[in-house]
Write a structure and sequence with these properties.
4-stranded antiparallel beta sheet, 0% helix, globular
């Protein structure tokens, strides 16, 4: 596992999502209650970018078919998705957001 810079800390607004690509991996970054989270940016039901979706409480809703995923765990909270999304460890350091990705 290796840490990678994903964005500047000030680029993620509270209660919103942004999409970035980190080392070839599409990642969605969130800030909820001042805490940073990172998940895969692709819905597991059908290809759609979650960063085009909607943050509702502690969930992200896919813009295509309204599947919902728990941001902290990746767990499916509403169909039609049946597979969870990946989550990544995240930290803020020196004004930057870093996420930990598996080494290939």
């Amino acid at each position: 596992m290796a840490w990678h810079v994903a964005a500047r800390a000030d680029e993620v607004p509270e209660n919103e999502v942004i999409g970035v690509v980190v080392d070839g991996e599409p990642v969605a970054l969130y800030k909820l209650g001042g805490v940073l989270y990172a998940t895969s940016n692709v819905c597991t039901h059908e290809f759609a970018l979650l960063s085009d979706g909607y943050v509702e409480g502690d969930c992200i809703e896919c813009p295509l078919h309204q599947a919902r995923f728990h941001i902290a765990t990746g767990e499916v909270r509403a169909a039609p998705a049946s597979e969870p999304i990946k989550t990544f460890p995240v930290k803020s350091e020196g004004g930057q957001i870093l996420i930990e990705l598996p080494e290939v």
